[in-house]
């Protein structure tokens, strides 16, 4: 019997890599290179370095688009970053600056540049842009981003490898930007986990999404995060409002007149800029500096906003000069209490550009609700002047490893008083975070264990007082 001839196996062709696969592999490869450098200590160092490199590539891709648009319109184009400091001048070709020459170009105040001339180093040039543009201009933003950025890599050859990898990202492609925004978000989360008690800049996304959904910012309203960290609340608010946009004018309103933030520390300021750019905000309006430096009694109607979404720092203490910006009977060194006063003052009054008063969703530690002294005075003002309609107690450890302090979400609106009866509470809970909402009646605040039944379609009743939600 003749042996049956075996047919040779044909190798099945691998499916082409998706944009996500390609970018994931590229970013993963870049991070592996960063791990080899002796000057970087964990993700807390690696992500900022990757961020400023991506930031410069992003800017150059954006400038190329703007140059082409200006050419089509027959208008002159004035670059934000000039030659020989543009990405295409020193980074785009793999055989250009590398090793010690690359490190000198980036780090030193004066150096030999890629075009052979001698002049300011890259970081020195970028920091100097502060005096060459209007306040709030892109040049000022770039100068603020690089004000305290340091290149911690000690190998110029490994840095060249990183630059070559990032050069493969096309920031003019909306698909690549969309994919990279999700990858960047996951890296921010990893950095938060690696940072321990420095992880204050990142709020878990389920908490952020819940607060935005309940607050429901609308197109045409102004949204502020006065302690914006890496920009999570502004990103989520942008995505939420973007669904309401139906024409170019509305898109322009969203891009230019809707989202505002402020951040006092240079690292999260840079991370927030990159985060917002990747999510589609073309010129993020993030002020650099301490929000609490503003004397709150001088905040007028024109400065007030419709919606505030924020997670102010817990446990911090401010210096005497900052405390002096607050009324004498409301002065305290505790950062969270000062921020809450600022937020209350910053919300818009009804009749001044809006039919209803401004509203806020704020993360606060337990001491804000149950403390005495200044805490009690702030709470009394809130209950008189605002409608505090929802308090959500978050489970222990939501913000670990940054802090294990028990935290709450406050939702309130200008136009009080709150009154004694239980009013509307949130229509949902952050997935995986809340097992029960807490009672929000004023006389039940003493009973910290009073819970609300939260079953759908059932009356919500406080176990502590028996009161029900309307």
Describe this structure in words.
The chain is of the alpha/beta class and 470 residues long. It folds into two domains: 19-172, Ferritin (Up-down Bundle); 196-452, Rossmann fold. It is built from 16 helices and eleven strands. The protein has helices at residues 19-36, 43-73, 87-90, 99-107, 122-127, 138-145, 156-166, 174-195, 205-215, 232-242, 248-256, 266-278, 320-323, 335-346, 366-370, 374-385, and strands at residues 110-112, 118-120, 223-225, 259-263, 286-288, 307-310, 359-365, 386-393, 407-414, 437-438, 451-452. β4, α12 (266-278) and β5 form a beta-alpha-beta unit.
Brief rundown of the structure:
The chain is an alpha/beta fold and 470 residues long.
């Amino acid at each position: 019997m003749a042996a049956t001839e075996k047919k040779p196996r044909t190798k099945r062709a691998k499916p082409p890599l998706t944009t996500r696969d390609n970018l994931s592999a590229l970013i993963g490869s870049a991070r592996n290179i960063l791990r080899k450098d002796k000057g970087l200590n964990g993700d807390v160092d690696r992500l900022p370095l990757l961020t400023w490199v991506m930031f410069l590539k992003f800017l150059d891709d954006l400038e190329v688009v703007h140059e082409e648009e200006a050419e089509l319109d027959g208008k002159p184009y004035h670059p934000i970053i000039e030659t020989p400091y543009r990405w295409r001048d020193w980074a785009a070709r793999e055989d250009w600056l590398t090793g010690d020459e690359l490190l000198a170009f980036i780090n030193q105040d004066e150096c030999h540049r890629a075009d052979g001339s001698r002049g300011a180093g890259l970081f020195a040039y970028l920091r100097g842009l502060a005096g060459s543009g209007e306040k709030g201009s892109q040049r000022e933003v770039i100068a603020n981003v690089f004000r305290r950025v340091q290149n911690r890599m000690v190998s110029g050859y490994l840095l060249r490898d990183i630059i070559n990898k990032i050069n493969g990202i096309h920031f003019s492609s909306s698909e690549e930007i969309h994919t990279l925004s999700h990858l960047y978000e996951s890296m921010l989360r990893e950095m938060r986990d690696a940072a321990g008690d420095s992880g204050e800049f990142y709020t878990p996304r389920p908490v952020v999404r819940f607060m935005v959904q309940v607050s429901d910012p609308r197109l045409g309203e102004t949204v502020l995060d006065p302690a914006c960290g890496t920009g999570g609340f502004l990103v989520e608010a942008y995505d939420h409002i973007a669904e309401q946009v139906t024409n170019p004018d509305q898109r322009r309103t969203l891009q230019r007149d809707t989202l505002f933030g402020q951040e006092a520390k240079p690292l999260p300021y840079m991370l927030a800029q990159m985060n917002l750019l990747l999510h589609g905000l073309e010129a993020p309006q993030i002020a650099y500096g301490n929000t609490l430096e503003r004397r709150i009694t001088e905040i007028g109607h024109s400065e007030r906003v419709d919606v505030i979404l924020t997670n102010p720092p817990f446990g911090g203490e401010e210096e005497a000069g900052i405390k002096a910006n607050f009324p004498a009977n409301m002065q305290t060194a505790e950062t969270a209490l000062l921020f809450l006063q600022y937020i209350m003052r910053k919300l818009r009054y009804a009749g001044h550009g809006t039919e209803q008063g401004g509203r806020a969703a704020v993360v606060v530690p337990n001491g804000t609700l149950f403390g005495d002294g200044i805490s009690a005075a702030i709470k009394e003002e809130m209950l008189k002047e605002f409608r505090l309609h929802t308090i959500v107690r978050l489970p222990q450890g939501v913000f670990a490893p940054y802090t294990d302090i028990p935290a709450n979400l406050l939702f309130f609106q200008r136009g009080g008083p709150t009154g004694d009866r239980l009013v509307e509470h949130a229509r949902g809970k952050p997935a995986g975070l809340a097992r029960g909402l807490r009672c929000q009646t004023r006389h039940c605040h003493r009973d910290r264990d009073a819970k609300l039944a939260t079953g759908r379609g059932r009356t919500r009743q406080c176990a502590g007082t028996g009161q029900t939600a309307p």
